[in-house]
Each structure stands twice: as C-alpha cells, then as structure tokens.
Amino acid sequence: MNGFKHLIIIILAITLSNCGGDSNKKNFSISTNATNNTIPLNEVLEITIKNPNKLEIESISYTFDGKTIKDTTTLLDFKLGSHDIIATVIYDGETETATQNISIVNNEAPKVYGYQIINTYPHDITSYTQGLEFYNGELYESTGQKGESKLRKVDYKTGEVLKNVDLADNYFGEGLTVLDKNIYLLTWLSGKGFVHNADTFERKSTFKFGKSQEGWGICNDGKMLYKSDGTEKIWYLNPETLVEDDHIQVYTNKGKIGKLNELEWINGKIYANIYQKNGIVIINPENGATEAVIDFSPLKELVTKHKGLDVLNGIAYNPETQTIFVTGKRWDKLFEVKIIE
User: Fold this and answer.
1) Domain boundaries, the chain
2) Cβ contacts of 199 within 8 Å, gap of 6 or more
3) Coil, strand or helix at 300
4) Which of 35, 37, 45, 106 is closest to 75 using CA atoms?
5) Does this model's pTM top 0.85?
6) Given CA atoms 139, 229, 188, 124 in this order, what sign does their dihedral have?
7) Mean pLDDT within 295-305
8) What class does CATH assign to 25-105?
9) 3-state secondary structure of 156
10) Helices (DSSP H) in 96-157: which residue ranges?
11) Residues 47-62 pLDDT 10s
C-alpha cells in the first residue's frame, strides 16, 4: 500500500513539473548577421526577431549591455569583447525578453613591432618581478611568491636597493603603480590590495577587489587606475574609492587575449605582458583593441640561465629618457629598449 502511494506521488510530481515547464517556454529569439556570433568593429550589426508562433507583436526594443540600440546599428564606438543583446518584445499585452550573446572583435590585425636594445643594467636575480614603474626618476618594483614578496625602490643603473619593505608571508605580491604619491600594490589571490606612501613606504590603507577575483597588473594614466585580473579583462578603478567602475576586454581581430599580467601606461596606450609568453601587447584603453604586439623572446637568451629562471615580466616607461625598460622573473638583467614600429 505504501508503495502504491509513493508511485502516485511520483506521477503527480512529474505531471506538475511538465505543466510548469510550459510556462517558461520562449516565444521569441534573436537572430543577427554576426558570423558564429562574432562581428568586427565598425561593421553594421543587423538584428531580427524570430517569431515561430507568428504572434502579433506590438513593439520591440533592443539594448546592448544596457544601452538602447536600433535593429540596424553601426558598431563605431563600441567596446570589443563579449556582450549581450536583449530584446524586449510586447505582444498581446504581454512582455517577454530574449537574449543573444555576440563578440565584437577588432577590424584590423595587430601590427608587429620590433625593438632595439639601448642599454643593459643589473637586476636582482632573486626577484620574482611582478610590477615595475618609474616615479620621479626612480624605479619601483614589486615581487611575488609567498615569503618572498616585497616592495622596493631601486637605482636602476646599479641595481642597488634604495628602500625595501617585505610583505607578510601569507601574501603573494603582484603589480604596482604610483599615482599622486601613493603606491597601489596588488596581491594575487587574497582579494585585496594596499596603498603605500611613495616616499616612506608606510602602508596607508587596504582595499578589496570588486568583480575581479584576482590581482595581476596595474597602471595609471594620471587620473584613472587600470587593473588586470589574469583574464582578458582590464578594470577601471577610481583612485579615490578604488571601486571597479567599468572594464574593457582585450581582443584582436581573431578573438580574446587572456592572462594579461603586468601593465604600463605609455603615451596613451596600455602595454601588457601576457603571462607565460615572452611578448607584450599594445592596447587601446578605450575599446580593448590589440593594436600591436612585440616579441621579446630573444631577451631571455641574454640572461643568466639558472633553475629558477622564468618568463618575461615587468614593463616600465622612463619619461626622462623616453625609453622602455623590461625584465623578467628572476632575470639578472634589466633591458632598456626602443620600440621600432
């Protein structure tokens, strides 16, 4: 008897489940002219609504990441990357939404730049370099690995350490940038960063990350902070509130570039290391377009080979010399280079 009751309960549950499923049925879907849901920047995006049940539609409106667009829109001032198109359809007094994800890629392939070595300087072979930046003519560096992470100021010509602060052993140091006498220093998996006085290295405050889960690289344009998190995203941080206000996604004409690491702001562009790749990409900070790439892999052959030798990482622009300095994790050399377009 108990078995019969259980059977009735199961049948009722299945029936109710099937009836409920019909209420979630979508009457409309979005179709676009994007090939495999991918479309280049500056192309015309055409959106149509599929209405297989031929319902009488009263109105349709479209939004693109919350911004109202038309069913035919030229993608002139749009950011690259993955985005959602949402259609709001009103029919027979009802309202229904449909969503379609598309990716906007760059409309041009990145240029390939070369470089010329101008000078070579000594670099601490034990430093697992994460952040590198010039401020008031002096080189600031942050390093990683738990128990080894540190913040320091260095005489780049001699390699002499002018000031050093060790991070607590539970922190894995990441990138740094200096703005208005403040050093903004990231940690990797702790979900937080630190603000230090650029002169004394005294820690002034701690801030938590927002939507980005990890800290990788950081730079600034004199007003805004830009932060990477190990994905294709670069986040805009307000230096006063340290809130992630917005972000860009870094794409080429083929697709996204992930593992963005150390960042440097140089003449209106963001230069970024790609983790585990001995190269740098040059990024448009407005829309995320990868405008150029630089292959620095030959530099690794010029440093001392040892067990702990790791990848290229560390970009610093010296406005006094108008040259770029690059190094790597546990490299014994710092290279001053000139980019050749």
Assistant:
1) 25-105, 111-340
2) 181
3) helix
4) 45
5) yes
6) negative
7) 94
8) mainly beta
9) coil
10) none
11) 999 999 999 999 999 9
